[in-house]
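Lecture 7 notes: from sequence to structure.
We start with the chain below.
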Amino acid sequence: MDSPRDLTRQILAGIGGGGIVKGSQATEVAAQSLRRKPARISTARVLAVADHSAPSGAAVIREAAALGRFGYRAEVLVDSVLAPSIRRYVPARQIHVMEGAFDPRVFPSVELIAVATGPGTLGKVALGIADGIPEQAALWALGSGVRTFMDLTCPADCEQEALRAVYSAHAEKLRALGVEHAARGMLLLALLAGLGAATEIIEQTGRQRPGYGGPQRVFITVKDVQAHRGGAWVIPANAVVTAAAGELALRKKIVFQRGKE
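Predicted C-alpha coordinates for the same chain:
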Protein backbone atom coordinates (compact mmCIF):
# COMPACT_ATOMS: atom_id res chain seq x y z
CA MET A 1 0.00 0.00 0.00
CA ASP A 2 1.29 3.48 -0.84
CA SER A 3 2.47 5.68 2.01
CA PRO A 4 0.63 9.03 2.47
CA ARG A 5 3.60 10.88 0.98
CA ASP A 6 3.76 8.57 -2.05
CA LEU A 7 0.04 8.93 -2.57
CA THR A 8 0.36 12.71 -2.31
CA ARG A 9 3.10 12.80 -4.93
CA GLN A 10 1.09 10.58 -7.27
CA ILE A 11 -2.09 12.61 -6.95
CA LEU A 12 -0.27 15.93 -7.39
CA ALA A 13 1.63 14.57 -10.39
CA GLY A 14 -1.66 13.60 -12.00
CA ILE A 15 -3.19 16.99 -11.24
CA GLY A 16 -0.25 19.18 -12.14
CA GLY A 17 0.85 17.37 -15.26
CA GLY A 18 -2.58 16.64 -16.65
CA GLY A 19 -1.77 12.95 -16.90
CA ILE A 20 -3.15 10.01 -14.98
CA VAL A 21 -0.77 8.24 -12.61
CA LYS A 22 -1.43 4.55 -12.09
CA GLY A 23 -0.92 3.13 -8.65
CA SER A 24 -2.95 2.29 -5.61
CA GLN A 25 -6.71 1.98 -5.65
CA ALA A 26 -7.00 5.33 -3.87
CA THR A 27 -4.90 7.02 -6.54
CA GLU A 28 -7.00 5.42 -9.27
CA VAL A 29 -10.23 6.67 -7.69
CA ALA A 30 -8.77 10.18 -7.47
CA ALA A 31 -7.64 9.98 -11.07
CA GLN A 32 -11.09 9.03 -12.36
CA SER A 33 -12.42 12.52 -11.74
CA LEU A 34 -9.55 13.93 -13.81
CA ARG A 35 -10.48 11.73 -16.78
CA ARG A 36 -13.97 13.18 -16.95
CA LYS A 37 -14.51 16.45 -18.74
CA PRO A 38 -15.51 19.13 -16.19
CA ALA A 39 -19.23 19.83 -16.24
CA ARG A 40 -18.71 23.56 -15.69
CA ILE A 41 -15.73 25.88 -16.06
CA SER A 42 -15.39 28.81 -13.67
CA THR A 43 -14.24 32.27 -14.75
CA ALA A 44 -13.91 33.59 -11.20
CA ARG A 45 -10.65 35.08 -9.97
CA VAL A 46 -11.25 33.95 -6.37
CA LEU A 47 -11.89 30.46 -5.01
CA ALA A 48 -12.76 29.60 -1.41
CA VAL A 49 -12.38 25.98 -0.29
CA ALA A 50 -13.76 24.41 2.88
CA ASP A 51 -15.14 21.18 4.24
CA HIS A 52 -17.19 20.51 7.35
CA SER A 53 -14.14 19.44 9.37
CA ALA A 54 -12.70 22.97 9.39
CA PRO A 55 -14.08 25.00 12.33
CA SER A 56 -13.81 28.19 10.29
CA GLY A 57 -15.27 26.70 7.10
CA ALA A 58 -18.54 28.63 7.01
CA ALA A 59 -16.83 31.87 8.09
CA VAL A 60 -14.29 31.64 5.26
CA ILE A 61 -17.05 31.05 2.72
CA ARG A 62 -19.09 33.98 4.03
CA GLU A 63 -16.19 36.40 3.80
CA ALA A 64 -15.34 35.28 0.28
CA ALA A 65 -19.00 35.52 -0.77
CA ALA A 66 -19.08 39.10 0.54
CA LEU A 67 -16.82 40.11 -2.36
CA GLY A 68 -20.03 40.25 -4.38
CA ARG A 69 -20.96 43.51 -2.70
CA PHE A 70 -17.81 45.05 -4.17
CA GLY A 71 -18.38 43.80 -7.69
CA TYR A 72 -16.25 40.64 -7.54
CA ARG A 73 -17.41 37.04 -7.72
CA ALA A 74 -15.91 34.27 -5.65
CA GLU A 75 -16.77 30.66 -6.32
CA VAL A 76 -16.70 28.14 -3.51
CA LEU A 77 -15.74 24.49 -3.32
CA VAL A 78 -17.30 22.68 -0.36
CA ASP A 79 -18.26 19.17 0.66
CA SER A 80 -21.82 17.88 0.63
CA VAL A 81 -22.15 18.34 4.40
CA LEU A 82 -21.30 22.05 4.35
CA ALA A 83 -23.09 22.91 1.09
CA PRO A 84 -26.68 23.19 2.45
CA SER A 85 -25.69 25.64 5.20
CA ILE A 86 -24.07 28.16 2.83
CA ARG A 87 -26.83 28.32 0.24
CA ARG A 88 -28.56 31.15 2.04
CA TYR A 89 -25.72 33.56 1.29
CA VAL A 90 -23.97 32.04 -1.74
CA PRO A 91 -25.83 31.78 -5.06
CA ALA A 92 -26.19 28.18 -6.21
CA ARG A 93 -24.35 28.91 -9.47
CA GLN A 94 -21.22 29.78 -7.47
CA ILE A 95 -21.16 26.56 -5.42
CA HIS A 96 -19.14 23.51 -6.45
CA VAL A 97 -19.57 20.33 -4.39
CA MET A 98 -16.43 18.24 -3.85
CA GLU A 99 -16.31 14.98 -5.75
CA GLY A 100 -13.28 12.75 -6.33
CA ALA A 101 -10.09 14.81 -6.49
CA PHE A 102 -9.50 18.54 -6.85
CA ASP A 103 -9.62 19.40 -10.55
CA PRO A 104 -7.79 22.65 -11.41
CA ARG A 105 -9.25 22.56 -14.93
CA VAL A 106 -12.51 23.81 -13.43
CA PHE A 107 -10.83 26.99 -12.15
CA PRO A 108 -8.45 28.17 -14.89
CA SER A 109 -8.76 31.88 -14.06
CA VAL A 110 -8.26 31.67 -10.28
CA GLU A 111 -5.70 34.17 -8.97
CA LEU A 112 -6.49 33.97 -5.24
CA ILE A 113 -7.52 30.99 -3.15
CA ALA A 114 -8.71 30.93 0.46
CA VAL A 115 -8.57 27.58 2.24
CA ALA A 116 -10.41 27.06 5.53
CA THR A 117 -8.09 25.41 8.02
CA GLY A 118 -8.13 23.48 11.24
CA PRO A 119 -5.11 21.90 12.94
CA GLY A 120 -5.39 18.86 10.68
CA THR A 121 -5.52 20.73 7.37
CA LEU A 122 -2.75 23.12 8.29
CA GLY A 123 -0.43 20.32 9.39
CA LYS A 124 -1.13 18.20 6.32
CA VAL A 125 -0.44 21.03 3.90
CA ALA A 126 2.79 21.86 5.73
CA LEU A 127 3.87 18.21 5.42
CA GLY A 128 2.75 17.85 1.80
CA ILE A 129 -0.05 15.38 2.54
CA ALA A 130 -2.95 15.75 0.09
CA ASP A 131 -5.52 13.23 1.29
CA GLY A 132 -8.44 15.67 1.08
CA ILE A 133 -9.65 18.21 -1.45
CA PRO A 134 -8.80 21.29 0.70
CA GLU A 135 -5.23 20.00 1.06
CA GLN A 136 -5.01 19.18 -2.66
CA ALA A 137 -6.31 22.62 -3.58
CA ALA A 138 -3.84 24.38 -1.27
CA LEU A 139 -0.84 22.40 -2.51
CA TRP A 140 -1.87 22.90 -6.13
CA ALA A 141 -2.16 26.66 -5.55
CA LEU A 142 1.24 26.90 -3.86
CA GLY A 143 2.83 24.92 -6.66
CA SER A 144 1.12 27.00 -9.35
CA GLY A 145 1.88 30.48 -8.09
CA VAL A 146 -1.70 31.20 -7.02
CA ARG A 147 -1.81 33.50 -3.98
CA THR A 148 -2.96 31.36 -1.06
CA PHE A 149 -4.67 32.62 2.10
CA MET A 150 -5.08 30.57 5.26
CA ASP A 151 -5.71 31.36 8.92
CA LEU A 152 -2.44 30.43 10.63
CA THR A 153 -3.59 31.42 14.12
CA CYS A 154 -3.00 28.78 16.78
CA PRO A 155 -6.40 27.62 18.13
CA ALA A 156 -7.36 29.05 21.50
CA ASP A 157 -8.13 25.57 22.86
CA CYS A 158 -4.62 24.31 22.01
CA GLU A 159 -3.26 24.64 25.54
CA GLN A 160 -0.44 22.08 25.60
CA GLU A 161 2.90 23.76 25.00
CA ALA A 162 4.21 20.90 22.85
CA LEU A 163 1.18 21.02 20.54
CA ARG A 164 1.41 24.79 20.24
CA ALA A 165 5.06 24.45 19.27
CA VAL A 166 4.18 21.93 16.52
CA TYR A 167 1.36 24.13 15.25
CA SER A 168 3.62 27.19 15.20
CA ALA A 169 6.30 25.26 13.32
CA HIS A 170 3.77 24.21 10.68
CA ALA A 171 2.51 27.78 10.39
CA GLU A 172 6.03 29.12 9.89
CA LYS A 173 6.70 26.51 7.22
CA LEU A 174 3.56 27.55 5.37
CA ARG A 175 4.62 31.20 5.54
CA ALA A 176 7.95 30.22 4.04
CA LEU A 177 6.11 28.42 1.23
CA GLY A 178 4.17 31.60 0.45
CA VAL A 179 0.92 31.19 2.37
CA GLU A 180 -0.50 34.55 3.43
CA HIS A 181 -2.06 34.74 6.87
CA ALA A 182 -5.67 35.94 6.95
CA ALA A 183 -7.33 35.56 10.33
CA ARG A 184 -11.08 35.38 10.72
CA GLY A 185 -12.55 38.80 10.04
CA MET A 186 -9.57 39.86 7.92
CA LEU A 187 -9.97 37.57 4.90
CA LEU A 188 -12.39 39.82 3.02
CA LEU A 189 -9.99 42.76 3.21
CA ALA A 190 -7.05 40.57 2.24
CA LEU A 191 -8.90 39.31 -0.83
CA LEU A 192 -9.95 42.82 -1.82
CA ALA A 193 -6.36 43.99 -1.54
CA GLY A 194 -5.22 41.00 -3.60
CA LEU A 195 -7.73 41.94 -6.30
CA GLY A 196 -6.39 45.49 -6.39
CA ALA A 197 -9.47 47.02 -4.79
CA ALA A 198 -9.03 50.23 -2.83
CA THR A 199 -9.78 49.32 0.77
CA GLU A 200 -9.73 53.05 1.54
CA ILE A 201 -13.29 53.03 0.16
CA ILE A 202 -14.32 51.09 3.23
CA GLU A 203 -12.52 53.53 5.51
CA GLN A 204 -14.27 56.50 3.93
CA THR A 205 -17.80 55.29 3.39
CA GLY A 206 -19.06 54.06 6.71
CA ARG A 207 -19.38 51.36 9.28
CA GLN A 208 -22.01 48.96 7.94
CA ARG A 209 -22.72 47.26 4.65
CA PRO A 210 -25.85 45.42 3.55
CA GLY A 211 -25.98 41.79 4.64
CA TYR A 212 -25.63 38.87 2.30
CA GLY A 213 -28.25 36.51 3.59
CA GLY A 214 -27.31 37.03 7.23
CA PRO A 215 -26.99 39.81 9.81
CA GLN A 216 -25.44 43.12 8.83
CA ARG A 217 -21.67 43.11 8.88
CA VAL A 218 -19.87 45.78 10.90
CA PHE A 219 -16.63 47.33 9.66
CA ILE A 220 -14.21 48.61 12.31
CA THR A 221 -12.37 51.57 10.77
CA VAL A 222 -9.54 53.90 11.80
CA LYS A 223 -12.06 56.43 13.14
CA ASP A 224 -13.54 53.77 15.42
CA VAL A 225 -10.13 52.85 16.80
CA GLN A 226 -9.17 56.49 17.30
CA ALA A 227 -12.27 56.95 19.44
CA HIS A 228 -11.49 53.91 21.62
CA ARG A 229 -9.38 54.49 24.71
CA GLY A 230 -7.55 51.18 24.68
CA GLY A 231 -7.53 47.79 26.33
CA ALA A 232 -10.04 45.04 25.55
CA TRP A 233 -12.75 45.80 23.02
CA VAL A 234 -15.65 43.40 22.44
CA ILE A 235 -16.74 43.54 18.80
CA PRO A 236 -19.42 41.58 16.89
CA ALA A 237 -18.40 38.09 15.83
CA ASN A 238 -18.82 38.92 12.14
CA ALA A 239 -17.05 42.30 12.28
CA VAL A 240 -14.34 43.13 9.76
CA VAL A 241 -11.37 45.12 11.09
CA THR A 242 -9.78 47.05 8.24
CA ALA A 243 -6.02 46.73 7.78
CA ALA A 244 -5.32 50.33 8.80
CA ALA A 245 -7.57 50.01 11.84
CA GLY A 246 -5.79 46.83 12.88
CA GLU A 247 -2.38 48.49 12.72
CA LEU A 248 -3.58 51.45 14.78
CA ALA A 249 -5.13 49.10 17.34
CA LEU A 250 -1.77 47.38 17.79
CA ARG A 251 -0.08 50.71 18.45
CA LYS A 252 -2.77 51.66 20.97
CA LYS A 253 -2.54 48.20 22.57
CA ILE A 254 -6.19 47.49 21.87
CA VAL A 255 -7.18 43.81 22.03
CA PHE A 256 -10.21 42.79 19.97
CA GLN A 257 -12.46 40.17 21.55
CA ARG A 258 -15.18 38.75 19.33
CA GLY A 259 -18.63 38.13 20.72
CA LYS A 260 -20.74 35.07 19.95
CA GLU A 261 -22.34 34.53 16.55
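Points to note: The chain has two domains: 4-191, 207-258. The CA atoms of residues 44 and 74 lie 6 Å apart.
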